[in-house]
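*** C-alpha coordinates ***
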Amino acid sequence: MRPALSILLFMLGLGSVPAQAGVKEDFLATVKKLEDAYFDELPREQRDDMFRQLGVWDDPKAAAPIASIAALYGAHLSSLRAQMKALQSRFDQFRGRAALTAQEEGLRNSLLRKVEAKERAWALAQRSEDLLIHAVAGMKNTKTIDTMVRTFGRHGSAAVRVVLARACAKWHLLLSDNKRATKFFRILSKMAHDKETRVRIAVAQSMASFETKDGYEMLRYSLKDGDWRVRLAAIRSLAKIRNNIAVTLLIEAMQREKGRLQADINTILEQITGEVLVYPEVWDRWWQSVGKIIPPKRPPAKDKTDNEKLKKDAARFYGIPTESRRICFIIDMSGSMNKEVEQFKDKGVVTGPTRKKNTPTEGKTRWEVARNELLRAVSNLNPEKQFTIIFFNQAAKPWRPQLTPAVPKTKKELRADVKLITPSGTTYTLGALREAFIMAGSASTKGATKKDGNGIDTIFVLSDGGPTDGTTGKPMEPDPILEQVREWNKDKSVVIHAIAVDTEEVGTYFLKQLAGQNGGVFVERK
Protein backbone atom coordinates (compact mmCIF):
# COMPACT_ATOMS: atom_id res chain seq x y z
CA MET A 1 0.00 0.00 0.00
CA ARG A 2 1.26 3.49 -0.78
CA PRO A 3 2.53 5.41 2.30
CA ALA A 4 0.08 8.31 1.90
CA LEU A 5 -2.98 6.06 1.92
CA SER A 6 -1.58 3.94 4.79
CA ILE A 7 -1.14 7.06 6.92
CA LEU A 8 -4.62 8.24 5.93
CA LEU A 9 -6.20 4.97 7.06
CA PHE A 10 -4.25 5.06 10.32
CA MET A 11 -5.32 8.65 11.06
CA LEU A 12 -8.94 7.76 10.40
CA GLY A 13 -8.75 5.05 13.03
CA LEU A 14 -10.36 2.44 10.84
CA GLY A 15 -8.88 -0.22 13.10
CA SER A 16 -11.37 0.66 15.83
CA VAL A 17 -14.47 1.07 13.65
CA PRO A 18 -16.02 -2.29 12.70
CA ALA A 19 -18.35 -3.98 15.09
CA GLN A 20 -18.07 -7.38 13.44
CA ALA A 21 -15.01 -9.60 13.29
CA GLY A 22 -13.33 -9.69 9.93
CA VAL A 23 -15.03 -6.57 8.56
CA LYS A 24 -11.98 -4.36 9.14
CA GLU A 25 -9.67 -6.84 7.46
CA ASP A 26 -12.02 -7.20 4.48
CA PHE A 27 -12.26 -3.46 3.97
CA LEU A 28 -8.54 -2.77 4.34
CA ALA A 29 -7.75 -5.65 1.98
CA THR A 30 -10.20 -4.28 -0.56
CA VAL A 31 -8.64 -0.80 -0.39
CA LYS A 32 -5.16 -2.22 -0.87
CA LYS A 33 -6.17 -4.43 -3.78
CA LEU A 34 -7.96 -1.58 -5.51
CA GLU A 35 -4.94 0.65 -5.09
CA ASP A 36 -2.68 -2.03 -6.60
CA ALA A 37 -5.17 -2.97 -9.32
CA TYR A 38 -3.63 -0.53 -11.81
CA PHE A 39 -0.45 -2.54 -11.89
CA ASP A 40 -1.76 -6.06 -11.38
CA GLU A 41 -4.44 -5.81 -14.10
CA LEU A 42 -6.85 -7.93 -12.11
CA PRO A 43 -9.60 -9.86 -13.93
CA ARG A 44 -12.79 -7.87 -14.37
CA GLU A 45 -14.90 -10.13 -12.16
CA GLN A 46 -12.48 -9.80 -9.24
CA ARG A 47 -12.23 -6.03 -9.55
CA ASP A 48 -16.01 -5.64 -9.87
CA ASP A 49 -16.52 -7.69 -6.72
CA MET A 50 -14.09 -5.47 -4.78
CA PHE A 51 -16.01 -2.35 -5.73
CA ARG A 52 -19.22 -3.97 -4.54
CA GLN A 53 -17.50 -4.56 -1.19
CA LEU A 54 -16.85 -0.83 -0.94
CA GLY A 55 -20.56 -0.17 -1.29
CA VAL A 56 -21.32 -2.45 1.66
CA TRP A 57 -19.01 -0.44 3.95
CA ASP A 58 -21.66 2.18 4.79
CA ASP A 59 -19.64 4.02 7.47
CA PRO A 60 -18.55 7.68 7.72
CA LYS A 61 -14.90 6.76 8.23
CA ALA A 62 -14.81 5.09 4.82
CA ALA A 63 -15.32 8.43 3.05
CA ALA A 64 -11.69 9.53 2.82
CA PRO A 65 -10.26 6.20 1.58
CA ILE A 66 -13.00 5.88 -1.04
CA ALA A 67 -12.37 9.46 -2.22
CA SER A 68 -8.67 8.59 -2.51
CA ILE A 69 -9.50 5.53 -4.60
CA ALA A 70 -11.70 7.65 -6.89
CA ALA A 71 -8.85 10.14 -7.30
CA LEU A 72 -6.39 7.35 -8.08
CA TYR A 73 -8.68 5.98 -10.77
CA GLY A 74 -9.19 9.45 -12.18
CA ALA A 75 -5.43 9.97 -12.38
CA HIS A 76 -5.07 6.52 -13.92
CA LEU A 77 -7.62 7.35 -16.62
CA SER A 78 -5.89 10.66 -17.39
CA SER A 79 -2.54 8.93 -17.63
CA LEU A 80 -3.91 6.28 -19.99
CA ARG A 81 -5.48 8.98 -22.19
CA ALA A 82 -2.16 10.81 -22.39
CA GLN A 83 -0.32 7.59 -23.26
CA MET A 84 -2.83 6.72 -25.99
CA LYS A 85 -2.54 10.24 -27.41
CA ALA A 86 1.25 9.97 -27.47
CA LEU A 87 1.10 6.61 -29.23
CA GLN A 88 -1.45 7.92 -31.71
CA SER A 89 0.80 10.86 -32.58
CA ARG A 90 3.44 8.36 -33.67
CA PHE A 91 0.91 6.92 -36.10
CA ASP A 92 0.82 10.24 -37.92
CA GLN A 93 3.89 9.26 -39.93
CA PHE A 94 1.83 6.50 -41.60
CA ARG A 95 -1.12 8.67 -42.58
CA GLY A 96 -1.76 8.96 -46.28
CA ARG A 97 1.00 6.47 -47.16
CA ALA A 98 0.08 4.23 -50.07
CA ALA A 99 2.69 1.61 -49.16
CA LEU A 100 4.96 0.83 -46.22
CA THR A 101 8.35 -0.88 -46.05
CA ALA A 102 8.67 -4.07 -44.03
CA GLN A 103 10.36 -2.13 -41.22
CA GLU A 104 7.64 0.52 -41.22
CA GLU A 105 4.93 -2.14 -41.24
CA GLY A 106 6.55 -3.79 -38.22
CA LEU A 107 6.70 -0.47 -36.36
CA ARG A 108 3.08 0.28 -37.19
CA ASN A 109 1.93 -3.13 -35.94
CA SER A 110 3.94 -2.76 -32.73
CA LEU A 111 2.38 0.63 -32.04
CA LEU A 112 -1.05 -0.78 -32.82
CA ARG A 113 -0.69 -3.52 -30.21
CA LYS A 114 0.41 -1.00 -27.60
CA VAL A 115 -2.56 1.23 -28.34
CA GLU A 116 -4.98 -1.70 -28.06
CA ALA A 117 -3.47 -2.76 -24.73
CA LYS A 118 -3.88 0.76 -23.36
CA GLU A 119 -7.47 0.86 -24.61
CA ARG A 120 -8.29 -2.37 -22.79
CA ALA A 121 -6.83 -0.95 -19.58
CA TRP A 122 -8.75 2.31 -20.10
CA ALA A 123 -12.06 0.50 -20.62
CA LEU A 124 -11.51 -1.54 -17.46
CA ALA A 125 -10.67 1.55 -15.40
CA GLN A 126 -13.70 3.40 -16.80
CA ARG A 127 -15.97 0.51 -15.80
CA SER A 128 -14.46 0.55 -12.32
CA GLU A 129 -15.25 4.25 -11.97
CA ASP A 130 -18.89 3.51 -12.87
CA LEU A 131 -19.03 0.78 -10.23
CA LEU A 132 -17.56 3.18 -7.69
CA ILE A 133 -20.30 5.73 -8.47
CA HIS A 134 -22.92 3.01 -8.00
CA ALA A 135 -21.36 1.93 -4.69
CA VAL A 136 -21.17 5.45 -3.27
CA ALA A 137 -24.65 6.47 -4.45
CA GLY A 138 -26.08 3.32 -2.87
CA MET A 139 -25.01 4.27 0.66
CA LYS A 140 -28.03 5.10 2.84
CA ASN A 141 -26.64 5.97 6.26
CA THR A 142 -27.26 9.72 6.67
CA LYS A 143 -24.04 10.23 8.66
CA THR A 144 -22.09 8.42 5.96
CA ILE A 145 -23.68 10.56 3.25
CA ASP A 146 -22.95 13.81 5.12
CA THR A 147 -19.31 12.76 5.58
CA MET A 148 -19.03 11.73 1.93
CA VAL A 149 -20.36 15.14 0.85
CA ARG A 150 -17.85 17.01 3.01
CA THR A 151 -14.89 14.82 2.07
CA PHE A 152 -15.62 14.61 -1.65
CA GLY A 153 -16.49 18.31 -1.86
CA ARG A 154 -13.05 19.33 -0.63
CA HIS A 155 -11.23 17.05 -3.06
CA GLY A 156 -9.40 18.45 -6.10
CA SER A 157 -9.84 15.47 -8.43
CA ALA A 158 -12.32 15.77 -11.31
CA ALA A 159 -13.06 12.04 -10.99
CA VAL A 160 -14.12 12.55 -7.36
CA ARG A 161 -16.36 15.47 -8.36
CA VAL A 162 -18.06 13.29 -11.01
CA VAL A 163 -18.75 10.62 -8.39
CA LEU A 164 -20.15 13.25 -6.04
CA ALA A 165 -22.38 14.86 -8.71
CA ARG A 166 -24.01 11.59 -9.70
CA ALA A 167 -24.34 10.44 -6.11
CA CYS A 168 -26.00 13.73 -5.06
CA ALA A 169 -28.86 13.12 -7.48
CA LYS A 170 -29.60 9.68 -6.01
CA TRP A 171 -29.18 10.85 -2.42
CA HIS A 172 -31.61 13.70 -3.12
CA LEU A 173 -34.25 11.17 -4.19
CA LEU A 174 -33.45 8.93 -1.22
CA LEU A 175 -33.59 11.54 1.55
CA SER A 176 -36.64 13.73 2.16
CA ASP A 177 -34.74 16.10 4.49
CA ASN A 178 -35.06 19.55 2.88
CA LYS A 179 -31.85 20.73 4.52
CA ARG A 180 -29.83 17.94 2.96
CA ALA A 181 -31.59 18.36 -0.39
CA THR A 182 -30.60 22.03 -0.39
CA LYS A 183 -27.03 21.04 0.40
CA PHE A 184 -26.94 18.63 -2.55
CA PHE A 185 -28.24 21.33 -4.86
CA ARG A 186 -25.63 23.86 -3.67
CA ILE A 187 -22.89 21.37 -4.42
CA LEU A 188 -24.20 20.76 -7.93
CA SER A 189 -24.64 24.51 -8.53
CA LYS A 190 -20.98 25.08 -7.78
CA MET A 191 -19.87 22.22 -10.01
CA ALA A 192 -21.99 23.54 -12.91
CA HIS A 193 -19.15 26.05 -13.41
CA ASP A 194 -16.42 23.39 -13.25
CA LYS A 195 -13.62 23.68 -15.82
CA GLU A 196 -13.82 19.95 -16.56
CA THR A 197 -16.45 19.11 -19.21
CA ARG A 198 -17.18 15.67 -17.78
CA VAL A 199 -18.05 17.22 -14.41
CA ARG A 200 -20.48 19.68 -16.01
CA ILE A 201 -22.03 16.79 -17.97
CA ALA A 202 -22.55 14.87 -14.71
CA VAL A 203 -24.22 17.94 -13.18
CA ALA A 204 -26.58 18.39 -16.14
CA GLN A 205 -27.51 14.70 -15.96
CA SER A 206 -28.13 14.94 -12.21
CA MET A 207 -30.45 17.95 -12.49
CA ALA A 208 -33.26 15.72 -13.79
CA SER A 209 -33.76 14.81 -10.11
CA PHE A 210 -34.32 18.43 -9.02
CA GLU A 211 -37.74 19.52 -10.28
CA THR A 212 -37.61 22.89 -8.51
CA LYS A 213 -37.41 26.50 -9.63
CA ASP A 214 -33.69 26.59 -8.89
CA GLY A 215 -33.23 23.26 -10.65
CA TYR A 216 -34.84 24.56 -13.83
CA GLU A 217 -32.64 27.66 -13.73
CA MET A 218 -29.59 25.43 -13.44
CA LEU A 219 -30.72 23.47 -16.49
CA ARG A 220 -31.28 26.76 -18.36
CA TYR A 221 -27.67 27.63 -17.51
CA SER A 222 -26.40 24.24 -18.76
CA LEU A 223 -28.38 24.69 -22.00
CA LYS A 224 -26.09 27.66 -22.76
CA ASP A 225 -22.82 25.85 -21.97
CA GLY A 226 -19.94 26.27 -24.39
CA ASP A 227 -19.64 22.51 -24.97
CA TRP A 228 -22.42 20.82 -26.97
CA ARG A 229 -22.14 17.64 -24.89
CA VAL A 230 -23.18 19.51 -21.74
CA ARG A 231 -26.10 21.08 -23.61
CA LEU A 232 -27.15 17.63 -24.84
CA ALA A 233 -27.06 16.26 -21.28
CA ALA A 234 -29.35 19.11 -20.18
CA ILE A 235 -31.70 18.44 -23.11
CA ARG A 236 -31.94 14.78 -22.13
CA SER A 237 -32.66 15.71 -18.50
CA LEU A 238 -35.56 17.88 -19.65
CA ALA A 239 -36.82 14.95 -21.76
CA LYS A 240 -37.13 12.96 -18.52
CA ILE A 241 -38.96 15.77 -16.69
CA ARG A 242 -41.59 16.17 -19.46
CA ASN A 243 -43.62 19.04 -17.96
CA ASN A 244 -44.61 22.55 -19.08
CA ILE A 245 -41.41 24.14 -17.85
CA ALA A 246 -39.37 21.50 -19.68
CA VAL A 247 -41.21 22.30 -22.91
CA THR A 248 -40.56 26.02 -22.43
CA LEU A 249 -36.83 25.48 -21.87
CA LEU A 250 -36.57 23.09 -24.82
CA ILE A 251 -38.25 25.55 -27.20
CA GLU A 252 -35.94 28.33 -25.98
CA ALA A 253 -32.91 26.09 -26.59
CA MET A 254 -34.19 24.96 -29.99
CA GLN A 255 -34.15 28.56 -31.21
CA ARG A 256 -30.44 28.81 -30.36
CA GLU A 257 -29.31 25.41 -31.63
CA LYS A 258 -28.50 24.26 -35.15
CA GLY A 259 -28.00 20.89 -36.77
CA ARG A 260 -28.17 17.72 -34.73
CA LEU A 261 -29.13 19.24 -31.35
CA GLN A 262 -32.00 21.16 -32.94
CA ALA A 263 -33.25 17.91 -34.50
CA ASP A 264 -32.90 16.09 -31.15
CA ILE A 265 -34.99 18.76 -29.41
CA ASN A 266 -37.63 18.56 -32.14
CA THR A 267 -37.94 14.79 -31.62
CA ILE A 268 -38.27 15.22 -27.84
CA LEU A 269 -40.93 17.90 -28.23
CA GLU A 270 -42.90 15.62 -30.55
CA GLN A 271 -42.74 12.83 -27.98
CA ILE A 272 -43.90 15.10 -25.14
CA THR A 273 -46.65 17.03 -26.92
CA GLY A 274 -47.74 14.85 -29.84
CA GLU A 275 -47.38 17.86 -32.16
CA VAL A 276 -45.41 17.81 -35.44
CA LEU A 277 -44.13 21.35 -35.98
CA VAL A 278 -40.44 20.86 -36.98
CA TYR A 279 -39.27 24.50 -37.03
CA PRO A 280 -38.22 26.48 -33.90
CA GLU A 281 -40.35 29.54 -34.74
CA VAL A 282 -43.42 27.35 -35.34
CA TRP A 283 -42.93 25.58 -32.02
CA ASP A 284 -42.64 28.94 -30.27
CA ARG A 285 -45.84 30.34 -31.84
CA TRP A 286 -47.77 27.19 -31.03
CA TRP A 287 -46.57 27.17 -27.42
CA GLN A 288 -47.62 30.78 -26.95
CA SER A 289 -51.05 30.09 -28.45
CA VAL A 290 -51.92 27.05 -26.31
CA GLY A 291 -51.23 28.96 -23.11
CA LYS A 292 -48.38 26.65 -22.15
CA ILE A 293 -50.70 23.79 -21.24
CA ILE A 294 -49.62 20.50 -22.76
CA PRO A 295 -52.56 18.87 -24.62
CA PRO A 296 -53.29 15.13 -24.32
CA LYS A 297 -50.37 13.15 -25.77
CA ARG A 298 -50.92 11.34 -29.03
CA PRO A 299 -48.50 9.58 -31.40
CA PRO A 300 -46.79 12.13 -33.70
CA ALA A 301 -47.25 11.84 -37.47
CA LYS A 302 -43.87 10.36 -38.30
CA ASP A 303 -44.19 10.48 -42.08
CA LYS A 304 -44.89 14.20 -42.08
CA THR A 305 -41.97 14.85 -39.73
CA ASP A 306 -39.56 12.87 -41.88
CA ASN A 307 -40.65 14.62 -45.08
CA GLU A 308 -40.26 18.05 -43.51
CA LYS A 309 -36.80 17.19 -42.26
CA LEU A 310 -35.71 15.94 -45.63
CA LYS A 311 -36.91 19.15 -47.27
CA LYS A 312 -35.17 21.20 -44.64
CA ASP A 313 -31.80 19.55 -45.27
CA ALA A 314 -31.29 17.92 -48.68
CA ALA A 315 -27.93 16.40 -47.73
CA ARG A 316 -28.42 12.65 -47.20
CA PHE A 317 -26.08 9.67 -47.09
CA TYR A 318 -27.73 6.40 -48.15
CA GLY A 319 -31.07 7.98 -47.27
CA ILE A 320 -30.04 9.14 -43.79
CA PRO A 321 -30.37 12.93 -43.30
CA THR A 322 -27.08 14.58 -42.32
CA GLU A 323 -28.56 16.94 -39.72
CA SER A 324 -25.28 17.38 -37.86
CA ARG A 325 -22.93 20.31 -38.34
CA ARG A 326 -19.79 18.24 -37.55
CA ILE A 327 -19.78 14.99 -39.53
CA CYS A 328 -17.28 12.18 -40.02
CA PHE A 329 -17.74 9.65 -42.84
CA ILE A 330 -15.94 6.31 -42.33
CA ILE A 331 -15.71 4.56 -45.70
CA ASP A 332 -14.55 0.98 -46.32
CA MET A 333 -11.95 0.76 -49.10
CA SER A 334 -10.98 -2.89 -48.65
CA GLY A 335 -10.44 -5.14 -51.67
CA SER A 336 -13.96 -6.56 -51.54
CA MET A 337 -15.36 -3.11 -52.38
CA ASN A 338 -14.20 -3.79 -55.97
CA LYS A 339 -16.96 -6.37 -56.44
CA GLU A 340 -19.56 -5.53 -59.05
CA VAL A 341 -23.17 -4.94 -58.06
CA GLU A 342 -26.43 -5.12 -59.96
CA GLN A 343 -28.74 -2.16 -60.32
CA PHE A 344 -31.26 -2.37 -57.50
CA LYS A 345 -33.76 -0.35 -55.56
CA ASP A 346 -32.97 1.08 -52.13
CA LYS A 347 -34.58 -1.13 -49.50
CA GLY A 348 -34.64 1.79 -47.11
CA VAL A 349 -33.90 2.09 -43.44
CA VAL A 350 -34.08 -1.08 -41.39
CA THR A 351 -33.92 0.71 -38.01
CA GLY A 352 -34.35 4.33 -37.09
CA PRO A 353 -36.86 7.12 -37.71
CA THR A 354 -36.19 8.02 -41.32
CA ARG A 355 -37.38 6.71 -44.68
CA LYS A 356 -36.26 7.23 -48.23
CA LYS A 357 -37.99 6.85 -51.57
CA ASN A 358 -36.69 4.13 -53.85
CA THR A 359 -33.86 5.37 -56.02
CA PRO A 360 -31.57 3.50 -58.42
CA THR A 361 -27.97 2.80 -57.50
CA GLU A 362 -25.26 4.61 -59.45
CA GLY A 363 -22.03 2.71 -60.09
CA LYS A 364 -20.78 -0.66 -61.27
CA THR A 365 -18.91 -1.68 -58.12
CA ARG A 366 -19.57 -1.31 -54.42
CA TRP A 367 -16.80 1.28 -54.27
CA GLU A 368 -18.23 3.34 -57.12
CA VAL A 369 -21.66 3.35 -55.50
CA ALA A 370 -20.21 4.38 -52.13
CA ARG A 371 -18.00 7.03 -53.74
CA ASN A 372 -20.94 8.55 -55.62
CA GLU A 373 -23.14 8.53 -52.53
CA LEU A 374 -20.36 10.23 -50.56
CA LEU A 375 -19.76 12.93 -53.16
CA ARG A 376 -23.50 13.60 -53.44
CA ALA A 377 -23.87 13.93 -49.66
CA VAL A 378 -20.89 16.26 -49.32
CA SER A 379 -21.96 18.38 -52.30
CA ASN A 380 -25.29 19.07 -50.55
CA LEU A 381 -23.75 20.08 -47.22
CA ASN A 382 -24.24 23.72 -46.33
CA PRO A 383 -21.06 25.85 -46.03
CA GLU A 384 -21.52 26.29 -42.27
CA LYS A 385 -21.22 22.53 -41.80
CA GLN A 386 -17.90 20.79 -41.23
CA PHE A 387 -16.88 17.29 -42.21
CA THR A 388 -14.01 14.87 -42.51
CA ILE A 389 -13.59 11.42 -44.05
CA ILE A 390 -11.69 8.35 -42.88
CA PHE A 391 -11.03 5.78 -45.58
CA PHE A 392 -9.93 2.43 -44.19
CA ASN A 393 -8.72 -1.04 -45.08
CA GLN A 394 -6.03 -2.61 -42.87
CA ALA A 395 -5.23 0.94 -41.73
CA ALA A 396 -7.22 4.12 -41.14
CA LYS A 397 -6.40 6.92 -43.61
CA PRO A 398 -7.99 10.29 -42.78
CA TRP A 399 -8.63 12.47 -45.81
CA ARG A 400 -8.04 15.49 -43.56
CA PRO A 401 -6.61 15.36 -40.02
CA GLN A 402 -9.43 17.55 -38.72
CA LEU A 403 -12.90 18.82 -39.58
CA THR A 404 -13.05 21.01 -42.68
CA PRO A 405 -15.75 23.52 -43.69
CA ALA A 406 -18.00 22.27 -46.51
CA VAL A 407 -17.13 25.14 -48.84
CA PRO A 408 -16.90 24.80 -52.67
CA LYS A 409 -13.08 24.64 -52.65
CA THR A 410 -13.06 21.73 -50.19
CA LYS A 411 -15.72 19.82 -52.14
CA LYS A 412 -13.73 20.26 -55.36
CA GLU A 413 -10.58 18.92 -53.67
CA LEU A 414 -12.50 15.88 -52.42
CA ARG A 415 -13.82 15.07 -55.90
CA ALA A 416 -10.26 15.11 -57.25
CA ASP A 417 -8.75 13.09 -54.39
CA VAL A 418 -11.39 10.39 -54.23
CA LYS A 419 -10.83 9.50 -57.90
CA LEU A 420 -7.29 8.38 -57.00
CA ILE A 421 -8.42 5.77 -54.46
CA THR A 422 -8.19 2.10 -55.41
CA PRO A 423 -9.73 -0.33 -52.90
CA SER A 424 -7.43 -3.04 -51.52
CA GLY A 425 -6.61 -4.90 -48.33
CA THR A 426 -8.71 -5.97 -45.34
CA THR A 427 -11.35 -4.38 -43.08
CA TYR A 428 -9.87 -2.98 -39.84
CA THR A 429 -13.02 -1.18 -38.71
CA LEU A 430 -11.80 -0.78 -35.12
CA GLY A 431 -8.84 1.31 -36.29
CA ALA A 432 -11.11 3.63 -38.29
CA LEU A 433 -13.47 4.07 -35.34
CA ARG A 434 -10.52 4.78 -33.06
CA GLU A 435 -9.32 7.50 -35.42
CA ALA A 436 -12.81 9.04 -35.50
CA PHE A 437 -13.09 9.16 -31.72
CA ILE A 438 -9.69 10.76 -31.46
CA MET A 439 -11.09 13.49 -33.71
CA ALA A 440 -14.30 13.57 -31.67
CA GLY A 441 -12.27 14.53 -28.62
CA SER A 442 -9.87 16.83 -30.42
CA ALA A 443 -9.65 20.51 -29.53
CA SER A 444 -8.03 21.41 -32.84
CA THR A 445 -11.20 21.45 -34.92
CA LYS A 446 -10.70 23.87 -37.78
CA GLY A 447 -13.15 26.73 -37.67
CA ALA A 448 -15.00 25.45 -34.59
CA THR A 449 -16.47 28.04 -32.25
CA LYS A 450 -16.65 27.77 -28.50
CA LYS A 451 -20.38 27.05 -28.71
CA ASP A 452 -19.76 24.23 -31.15
CA GLY A 453 -17.59 22.39 -28.62
CA ASN A 454 -14.72 20.20 -29.77
CA GLY A 455 -14.74 17.60 -32.49
CA ILE A 456 -17.31 15.64 -34.44
CA ASP A 457 -20.76 14.73 -33.12
CA THR A 458 -22.02 12.35 -35.84
CA ILE A 459 -20.34 9.42 -37.60
CA PHE A 460 -21.46 7.50 -40.69
CA VAL A 461 -19.84 4.06 -41.06
CA LEU A 462 -20.07 2.21 -44.39
CA SER A 463 -18.64 -1.28 -44.85
CA ASP A 464 -19.21 -4.43 -46.88
CA GLY A 465 -17.70 -6.93 -44.46
CA GLY A 466 -17.13 -8.01 -40.89
CA PRO A 467 -14.27 -6.40 -38.94
CA THR A 468 -10.78 -7.87 -39.29
CA ASP A 469 -7.53 -7.44 -37.37
CA GLY A 470 -5.25 -4.62 -38.52
CA THR A 471 -2.12 -6.75 -38.36
CA THR A 472 -3.07 -10.31 -39.30
CA GLY A 473 -6.22 -9.67 -41.34
CA LYS A 474 -8.04 -12.34 -39.36
CA PRO A 475 -11.73 -11.86 -38.40
CA MET A 476 -12.39 -10.03 -35.12
CA GLU A 477 -15.26 -10.73 -32.74
CA PRO A 478 -17.82 -7.89 -32.99
CA ASP A 479 -18.84 -7.69 -29.31
CA PRO A 480 -15.46 -6.56 -27.87
CA ILE A 481 -15.33 -3.82 -30.53
CA LEU A 482 -18.87 -2.71 -29.67
CA GLU A 483 -17.94 -2.59 -25.99
CA GLN A 484 -14.85 -0.51 -26.78
CA VAL A 485 -16.94 1.97 -28.80
CA ARG A 486 -19.44 2.29 -25.94
CA GLU A 487 -16.58 3.19 -23.59
CA TRP A 488 -15.15 5.73 -26.06
CA ASN A 489 -18.58 7.25 -26.52
CA LYS A 490 -19.59 7.46 -22.88
CA ASP A 491 -18.81 11.16 -22.45
CA LYS A 492 -18.82 12.16 -26.12
CA SER A 493 -22.47 11.36 -27.03
CA VAL A 494 -21.56 10.84 -30.70
CA VAL A 495 -24.36 9.44 -32.88
CA ILE A 496 -23.20 6.59 -35.15
CA HIS A 497 -25.15 5.65 -38.29
CA ALA A 498 -24.16 2.46 -40.13
CA ILE A 499 -24.60 1.26 -43.71
CA ALA A 500 -24.08 -2.43 -44.55
CA VAL A 501 -23.34 -3.05 -48.23
CA ASP A 502 -24.05 -6.69 -49.12
CA THR A 503 -22.42 -7.91 -45.88
CA GLU A 504 -22.45 -11.41 -44.50
CA GLU A 505 -24.18 -12.25 -41.21
CA VAL A 506 -21.32 -11.14 -38.91
CA GLY A 507 -20.88 -7.81 -40.69
CA THR A 508 -24.61 -7.09 -40.64
CA TYR A 509 -24.84 -7.93 -36.93
CA PHE A 510 -21.88 -5.71 -36.11
CA LEU A 511 -23.07 -2.66 -38.04
CA LYS A 512 -26.67 -3.01 -36.86
CA GLN A 513 -25.54 -3.18 -33.22
CA LEU A 514 -23.07 -0.32 -33.75
CA ALA A 515 -25.90 1.99 -34.88
CA GLY A 516 -28.43 0.72 -32.36
CA GLN A 517 -26.13 1.11 -29.36
CA ASN A 518 -25.05 4.63 -30.32
CA GLY A 519 -28.34 6.33 -31.20
CA GLY A 520 -28.00 5.93 -34.96
CA VAL A 521 -29.81 4.55 -38.00
CA PHE A 522 -28.93 1.28 -39.73
CA VAL A 523 -29.36 0.85 -43.50
CA GLU A 524 -28.84 -2.43 -45.33
CA ARG A 525 -28.15 -2.69 -49.06
CA LYS A 526 -28.33 -6.06 -50.78
Q: What stands out?
A: The chain has 20 helices and ten strands.
